[in-house]
Amino acid sequence: MTDINTALEQRPDILAAMARIQMADDNRKLAQSLTTRDITVGLQLEHYPGNGPSRNTIGAGFSIPLFTGYQYQGEIARAEVDYTASLEAEERIRANAVSEIQRARADLDAAIEKTTRYDEHMLQEAEKTAQAAEFAYQHGAMGVTDLLDARRVFRALQIDAATAHADYAISLANWQAALNRNTNE
């Protein structure tokens, strides 16, 4: 299970969802910072050169926003909604990823069981049956149609076994892709 949790944290869809959560949280903090009053203090010096004595003007300014008509509630509410939506999207993406991993594992287990059944039981029995049919035909105990039928069944089982191996390879690749693993590992 730890391997699956590690794989989940490294999946690109999960990483993208986590980045969206971080961005939404930053936007939420930025929206909340709009309610902070930015006090501004300014000094000004103006110099007017002329023929006579120069005239200088000095000024000072002080500004405090009052927020009498607008408290940025809309921006703050929108940022909160975006943050909540990104959290819910991350949970949905994570649940989909877990189900994809579980489905890929179940498919892999089924492919392993099917391949094992063909390799360890069915092919061996079919080969014994085909050899017995060859022996019986060579000694006159079986007709040619029965021999051909035994050969056909054996070849069909070989094709089915090859298909089972191909399905196993596909299931293994899907499992590794679900875990975000490189197939060359």
Describe the structure concisely for a colleague:
The protein has 185 residues and is mostly helical. The protein contains 4 helices and 2 strands.
Structural Rg: 38 Å
| Helical stretch tally | 4
Task: Tell me the span between the first and last alpha carbons.
Answer: 20 Å
The number of strands is 2
Helix content percent band = over 70%
- Overall pLDDT level: 89
SSE topology string: HHEEHH
Class computed from helices, strands and strand pairing: mainly alpha
Which runs of at least 5 residues are low in confidence (pLDDT < 50)? Answer: none
| Main sheet makeup | 2 strands, antiparallel
Q: Give the name of the CATH superfamily.
A: Outer membrane efflux proteins (OEP)
Number of domains: 1
For this entry, what is the oligomeric state of its chains? single chain
| CATH architectural designation | Up-down Bundle
